[in-house]
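Running this now, will post back.
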Amino acid sequence: MDRKWLLETWVGVFVAAGIAALAMLAFRVGNIAEAEVRNPYEIRARFDNIGGLKVRAAVTMAGVTIGRVAGITFDSERYQAVVTMRIDGRYDRIPTDTSAAILTAGLLGEQYIGLEPGGADEYLKAGDTIEITQDAIVLEKLIGQFLFNKAAETPPAEKPAPLPQ
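Update: finished.
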């Protein structure tokens, strides 16, 4: 009986460890375990297409996470998505001519915002809007354009020569 109890205990330990590992993976993929943003300020950017960007997605500059997406709304007058970003207060020297692009990371296709600094002497303040943006690349649209271009390149089929009589 002791052997059976020992075996069941080890199986239970391994099952618990597996569940814990899956939970950690889910937290990492879902950006739930995020770093605290200190003294944040909010800036905005307008995009024609945000793809699969989600609230709490990373905002990066030079590969360093400097903030998170705080909100996504739709401007029904301009027909654009308005993305609000909460930037860590330590990064308060972002030039006003900075550009924002929606990029894709990893095998799971997680999307985030990448900021490319400009060269202006003035810096973004709370409530400012980034004017230069690049939309998300939508894979379906890209494949459709590729197929359309390939179809346009192929010459029309030649008519077969008539058979001799």
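DSSP finds two helices and eight strands in the chain. More later if anyone needs it.
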